[in-house]
Amino acid sequence: MAQQFTSQNIKKRTAVLVFLKGSTAPLVLYVDAPQELYAEVLNLMKSPSPVMVEKETSGPLKKVCFISNQVAAVALQEEQYIQ
Q: Which of 36, 69, 81, 82 is 20 to 30 A removed from 10 (C-alpha atoms)?
């Protein structure tokens, strides 16, 4: 018998996607404040000098590090998941 999923079981979360130059897949980062991380990466992309970015996340990637001048794009992605 298939389990019934109600709207109470379905949750939403927002991931920050960081696309790096030369990479085919983005880094998918789950953090407590995705809007703030998005704004931070966006500001770093505007910076004329490269900066090393190191973040701890709560998703499958526990810690990530990249150089700001290697970021090609950044995006917010809303996802549904079952809890």
A: 36
- Say how far apart CA 17 and CA 4 lie, in whole Å: 31
pLDDT band at 10 (very low <50, low <70, confident <90, very high): confident
Residue type, 26: P
- Environment class of residue 51 by beta-carbon count within 10 Å: exposed (0-12), middle (13-18) or buried (19+)? exposed
Name the phi and psi angles at 59, rounded to 5: -100, -160
* 20 contact partners, CB below 8 Å, separation of at least 6: 26, 27, 66, 70, 71, 72
Note the pLDDT tens digit of each residue in 24-40: 999 999 999 999 999 99
Long-range Cβ contacts of 49-54 (<8 Å, 24+ apart): none
